[in-house]
Design goal:
The protein is mostly helical. A two-stranded antiparallel sheet has the order 1-2. A two-stranded antiparallel ribbon has the order 3-4. The longest helix is centred in the last third of the chain and has 40 residues, at about 1235-1275. It is flat, with a radius of gyration of 44 Å.
């Protein structure tokens, strides 16, 4: 064999090829192939041998050509077998490539078929010989004609046939990557490329997971030729399916307690991570790919985002060029998703038509979880996204830097939800990724320090959650927290309080942090800024509350509800309590200095001492002595002197200005609450043991002294007349003079002290009749002073300020109301009758409850002890509500003797007002506790355990029935007995409770049926009540079904009540809803129009959804069309909604509405209606472009309705509005109103006319323009239904002109002759007629 090879080689080295050619011809083909195999396996002379064979096989001879083909056919499987060394195989393939272009067409076709057949049967596993295939295809494409079957094809066509045949056949999964690589070198037309890429994407599912990243890499290289969007969408769709499959398996595994995993989660995540890196690398090199990626995501509204595509987006955001675009897109997608969810949630019509939204927030949180599998390229962008969401959608500063949003526990609006999502992303990222923790913490703290003008509550909440989740990790970055402490005295008080509360658990475990804070707070005590000093007091009080001294009661014994952060801190208590004691006493000595500072600083101290005492009972002696010595400064010890307080010391003057120096009432309040709590603590302790005599004597000293002072003050305050305080009726209370300011301050202090003494005497009185008589005496004086203040402030333009906040504690208000209204104990009856005999006192008690509940609703806490504890406040709310519900339902307001006083509300009405505020507060501040709240009311006397088994809807329905009865009894009487205020309050309460009912429940249906019945049968002419009732009806109806039919009926009622714009037309009397009558029709019109606006919003949203879907469907596939006879349910619903709305509006535009708000709103809504009709036409123009065919019959009807009914009436209505406003102007002249008012009214009228009317006419004309367009596209003449629009540019009304000319002539004649010519007047009138 060696000799044969050597001979061929030696012959090839000669000059001529004839001898070599003859020798090769003499060798049989199988011997020749054996020589090639032998040389190749040995790795020697194989290239030289093949060169020699090619030299001796000229393409011009038949033998030479067939020999060349034989070599090719032998070498291809030989290289693929894997028996050869890589270098040898590469050399052979290289040689074959060089010689390919000389092969004749049939040989090339045979070789190509050989490759195709080998691929089909899966013999191309190695893929080495595939490098030759592109060369063969390129050579083939260059041939002019190749025999194919019985005829001929051009080389290019033949190549296309081959590629089609190849892509249509089955591929062995092993050779997919090799084939994809190979096709990069094949010239392909766009159609062939698309066909190929679709084939490769289909093969994804048949490949092993580990083979996906290299295939994606090759696909992205292939995408350089085109079809970029298809490649990216295919990759994303594959991973979306894998994620869903993996989640489904996980769920099934959890439910069946079996581990079912065809795809291991960690393997899938690592593959996804690698795929993302490949895509991002490709985008860095090819910006067109990046543009295509973002464009496809923006267009594909129908195909939602998924965790993989979000991760890919966030990785792409690391490229500077795309950063802004990606975050803008994600921001927009998130807020749109939340808005869509809210929209769907608020409308039954939309819920029936569309599936629930895909939650992008959940996908983003999934991306955060997935990023744990080494997705470092995603984490940085996640942090950025979190901060962008929190910065963009956090609470905004209102006027004067106040927060607009009241603090609520649950996020409700899309912006709040987006901000909350940002916080969750950052918190989860902080927990999972160590490298970015420092950065997150630094950025949060920076924002707390720098954003002083806007609220930072969301960042404080995030910081608190970070501290709770990982306090020990945070200590590694304690230096950053210390740096922030240095800025404390310059930050707003609310930020300081939030920040210290958030980092408080760290102070327990880090001595250095605690020391740094104390240094900063001590400096702040001497700050020149008042806020700095208040921050210091706030910080010190927090420390006192949380560093408990040995012997202090456990928190559970204090019955103080702690925040979770405090519980966390107690777990980490590292320091012994003895050290804490000296530390706390040191702080107390610092705080005593504050007692010489401004009133605001003292006030903070007084409000904080009680909470400190409850948490740290061992500090009682020190705190009580501090309070006692402070109280003695203002207490008159001489028992015979009146009044018992030195009020002059409580104020200070600076030039002409007088201001409060000592908030005396708060000092009294703090002292009383601390004393009472300490006393109850002592009694509890004495019940257990009687050993510690010394301490008790020591403590008893200040207790007895304080009790004696309070008793003396009570006695002398009752004896004191207002003259003793220089506050009689003749005193000056104006806020413009220094005397008035001083008297006002005195009055507030004295009223506060009266209240504190009432609470003190009630609490220690133990239902003694004498004590209660003293309370009533105190109240009478309090009442007298209140009335004087009310009278004096009422004399000015408006009351100069609200009445001061009551100093009664919420706990006491709850106790007092229970005693007054529900205490039926025999032993208490005599003493309570003293208080119950005073209606004013009862009314005052309920009023204070109202004030407390309002404060809780607005700020989330109340003044006084325990006011900062949400759990305590909730318990008191439950108690107050239970009492007031019982009072309202058991004593009807009709029975109550109001004493016919001119301006006082009945107690029942006040109770109802409190109940309304309570329900609103609970829904806003305690949404998770609503069920507990309703259980606690226990009106029916059921056992609570039974009540708790009921669902929330059942519990709510029970209370709804209570209020329904009350409202029904109001409506059953005559209109004279009807109490409008009470009915309005009842409707407001029912509206709040209705929100708790499940819209699909039977109770909801019963309630809406009842509401409709009331609206149909109630004919009282009370505008506020009818407005409330109809608002309730609409808010229910939209969750039950679309309200358009109800709107239509109401529009007919309004038309019937107000008459027609044409005075000669008599409107048919209709009354579907009795609540709509002549008096209430105008206010009902505004309500109806606001509902019309809402329906238009829904229709607009639906059309936008359909547009988005049709765009994405059009790009995905043009094939699927709607069956001819069947209309899409969304399109059908849109047409029906608009049809009914047009009929309803047709009624309204014929109604003689009062000019002003009603006509302006109607014109605006008409404009919007035409605008949305135009949007609908644009959608159908788009549909006609993609799916030519006839239009739905419903659309034709809609166009007919708008053209023949509504449009002509719109023009009549515009004329009516303008003539009415003209008459209104004439009347103004007759009444000779002030010139300024006339000018203002005229300018307002011009502004209205320049906005609403031209806008409406423009919208009508745009609608007609697009109708013409749609008619052309659809080949249906829609313009046959439209009447020619009135030309409104220049219009002469003959009758009006004649009248005006006659009036002008008449006035000229009157001026010419001094004497009036009586005889001619009738003639003129007759002529005019």
């Amino acid at each position: 064999m060696k000799a044969a090879i050597d001979k061929i080689l030696s012959l090839s080295e000669g000059d001529g090829t004839k001898e070599l050619e003859n020798h090769l011809t003499s060798l049989p083909q199988d011997q020749l192939t054996a020589l090639i195999t032998n040389a190749a396996l040995k790795g020697k002379d194989s290239a030289a041998l093949m060169k020699a064979i090619f030299r001796g096989s000229p393409i011009s001879s038949t033998d030479g050509a067939s020999r060349r083909l034989c070599v090719y056919k032998h070498c291809i499987p030989l290289c693929e077998s894997g028996d050869l060394q890589t270098e040898v195989a590469s050399d052979i393939i290289g040689l074959l490539m060089l010689e390919t272009h000389v092969l004749p067409g049939p040989a090339l076709a045979a070789l190509a078929s050989l490759f195709v057949d080998a691929i089909k049967v899966g013999e191309m596993g190695n893929g080495k010989s595939l490098e030759l295939f592109p060369t063969i295809l390129t050579a083939l494409a260059a041939k002019e004609a190749i025999a194919y079957g019985k005829g001929e094809l051009s080389g290019d066509e033949y190549k296309k046939q081959l590629i089609n045949s190849l892509c249509a056949s089955r591929w062995d999964p092993q050779c997919v990557i090799h084939l994809t690589t190979m096709f990069r070198d094949v010239p392909l037309s766009p159609e062939e490329l698309q066909f190929l890429i679709e084939k490769v994407l289909r093969m994804f599912l048949k490949l092993d997971l580990q083979e996906i990243p290299p295939l994606i890499y090759q696909l992205l290289l292939l995408a350089a030729k085109g079809c970029k969007k298809l490649v990216l969408e295919g990759i994303i769709a594959y991973f979306r399916e894998q994620d869903l499959h993996q989640k489904k398996e996980q769920r099934e595994g959890e439910s069946m307690d079996v581990e079912v995993q065809t795809i291991p989660q960690d393997q899938l995540r690592h593959v996804e991570g690698t795929a993302i890196l490949h895509v991002v690398f490709a985008i860095r090199l090819d910006h067109e790919l990046g543009k295509e990626f973002l464009k496809s995501l923006k267009v594909s509204q129908g195909q939602p985002l998924c965790p993989f595509s979000i991760a890919l987006l966030l990785s792409v955001a690391r490229i500077q060029h795309y950063q802004e675009q990606v975050f803008e897109f994600l921001k927009g997608a998130i807020i749109k998703n939340f808005k869509d969810e809210q929209f769907l949630h608020g409308s039954k019509l939309l819920q029936d038509l569309l599936p629930p939204c895909h939650s992008i927030s959940q996908m983003i949180l999934d991306t955060v979880k997935n990023s744990v599998f080494g997705w470092d390229h995603v984490t940085q962008s996640l942090v950025q996204l979190g901060f962008i969401l929190m910065d963009s959608f956090g609470p905004k500063a209102g006027p004067f830097g106040k927060t607009i949003e009241a603090p609520t526990t649950a996020a409700k609006t899309p912006s709040q939800l987006a901000c909350q999502l940002g916080g969750q992303v950052l918190l989860e990222s902080f927990k999972m990724h160590e490298p970015i923790r420092g950065e997150i913490l630094e950025q949060v703290l920076n924002r707390l320090v720098t954003k002083t003008a806007s609220p930072v509550t969301h960042f404080i909440e995030l910081l608190s959650n970070i501290v709770m989740s990982a306090p020990m990790i945070l200590l590694e970055s304690s230096s950053k927290v210390t740096e922030t402490f240095d800025q404390l005295s310059f930050l707003p008080l609310s930020t300081v309080q939030g920040l210290l509360k958030a980092v408080q658990p760290l102070l327990k475990v880090s001595m250095s942090l605690k020391d740094a804070l104390i240094l900063v707070l001590r400096k702040a005590m001497f700050s020149s800024q008042l806020d700095g000093r208040k921050s210091a007091v706030s910080g010190f009080l927090l420390l006192l509350k949380n560093f408990r001294v040995l012997g202090s009661l456990a928190p559970s014994q204090c019955s103080q509800a702690l925040t979770s952060s405090q519980v966390q801190a107690d777990v980490h208590s590292r320091y012994n309590s003895a050290a804490n004691e000296s530390f706390c006493l040191e702080i107390l000595s610092s705080l005593r200095r504050c007692l010489g500072q401004q009133a605001d600083v003292r006030l903070m101290l007084y409000e904080g001492f009680h909470d400190v005492l409850r948490r740290n009972s061992q500090l009682a002696s020190s705190i009580m002595h501090t309070l006692l010595s402070q109280l003695k400064r203002y207490y008159e010890p001489e028992q015979d002197l009146l009044p018992p307080m030195k009020l002059e010391s409580c104020i200070s003057a600076q030039g002409d200005q007088v201001f409060l120096q000592e908030p005396l009432a708060h000092l009294f309040s703090c002292t009383v609450h601390c004393l009472l709590w300490h006393q109850s603590l002592g009694e509890n302790a004495r019940g257990g043991m009687d050993d510690e005599d010394d301490e008790e004597e020591d403590e008893g000293g200040f207790q007895d002294e304080l009790h004696a002072i309070l008793e003396s003050v009570t006695r002398r305050m009752i004896k004191s007349e207002l003259e003793d305080f220089e506050l009689d009726k003749s005193a000056d209370f104006s806020m413009t003079t220094s005397v008035g300011v001083k008297n006002s301050i005195y009055a507030v202090l004295v009223m506060g002290v009266y209240e504190v003494l009432m609470e003190y005497n009630f609490t220690i009185g133990n239902y003694s009749k004498n004590r209660f008589e003293e309370i009533l005496e105190l109240f009478k004086r309090y009442q007298k002073l209140t009335e004087i203040l009310r009278e004096k402030s009422g004399k000015g333009r408006t009351p100069h300020s609200k009445p001061p906040r009551s100093l009664l504690s919420m706990g006491f208000v709850s106790t007092l109301l229970t005693a007054l209204f529900r205490d039926s104990a025999q032993s208490h009856e005599e003493s309570l009758s003293v208080l119950r005999s005073s209606g004013e006192f009862m009314r005052y008690s309920v009023n204070v409850a109202l004030q407390k509940v309002q404060q809780l609703e607005e700020t989330g806490h109340t003044d006084g002890p325990e006011g900062q504890s949400p759990d305590k406040a909730f318990r008191y709310l439950c108690d107050i509500t239970s009492v007031l519900m019982w009072r309202y339902t058991n004593i009807p307001s009709a029975v109550e003797d109001t004493g016919k006083k001119e301006k006082t509300q009945s107690i029942s009405l006040l109770c109802l007002e409190v109940l309304l505020r309570v329900f609103s507060t609970v829904l806003q501040q305690y949404p998770s506790k609503v069920s507990n709240f309703l259980c606690s009311l226990d009106l029916s006397g059921e056992v609570e355990e039974e009540a708790e088994k009921d669902s929330l809807t059942e519990k709510t329905a029970f209370y709804i029935r209570q209020f329904q009865r009350s409202l029904f009894s109001q409506l059953s009487g005559s209109e004279e007995d009807f109490n409008s205020k009470e009915a309005q309050l009842l409707v407001s309460i029912l509206s709040l409770l209705a929100g708790l009912l499940e819209p699909s429940s039977q109770q909801f249906v019963q309630f809406i049926t009842w509401t409709v019945k009331i609206c149909k049968e109630t004919s009282f002419e009370d505008i506020p009540f009818s407005r409330g009732l109809l608002s309730l009806l609409f808010s229910l109806h939209v969750l039950y079904k679309s309200p358009v039919s109800v709107l239509w009926e109401m529009c007919q009622d309004i038309h019937s009540a107000l008459g027609d714009i044409d005075e000669d037309v008599e409107v048919e009397k209709q009354s579907h809803f009795a609540v709509v009558n002549t008096k209430t029709a105008a206010s009902t019109t505004l309500l109806v129009l606001s509902q019309v606006g809402r329906v238009l919003d829904e229709v607009d949203w639906l059309i936008a959804k359909k547009k988005g879907q049709s765009t994405s469907e059009k790009t995905a596939s043009e094939g699927a069309t709607q069956p001819a006879g069947q209309q899409d349910p969304v399109e059908k619903a849109v047409t029906l909604q608009l049809g009914t709305l047009l009929t309803a509006l047709n009624e309204l535009v014929q109604t003689a509405l009062p000019t002003g708000a009603c006509t302006d709103t109607l014109l605006r809504e008409l404009g919007r209606t035409y605008s949305i009709l135009t949007t609908l036409l644009k959608y159908y123009i788009q549909v006609c472009a993609t799916h030519p065919g006839h239009l739905p019959a419903r659309l034709e009807k809609l166009v007919k309705l708008s053209g023949s009914h509504l449009t002509p009436q719109c023009y009549c209505f515009i004329t009516y509005v303008q003539s009415e406003e003209g008459n209104g102007g004439a009347n103004d002249k007759k009444k000779k109103k002030k010139e300024e008012e006339a000018v203002m009214a005229a300018s307002a009228k011009i502004i209205r006319q320049t906005k609403a009317i031209p806008s409406l006419i423009y919208n009508i004309e745009q609608y007609e323009k697009f109708l013409i367009l749609l008619s052309k596209k659809s080949k249906v003449n829609l313009m046959q239904y439209m009447k020619l629009s009135t030309s409104r540019d220049f219009r002469i009304n003959a009758a009006t002109l004649q009248t005006a000319m006659q009036e002008q002539q008449e006035s000229q004649q009157t001026e010419a002759s001094q004497e009036p010519e009586e005889s001619q007047a009738p003639k003129k009138k007759r002529r005019k007629q």
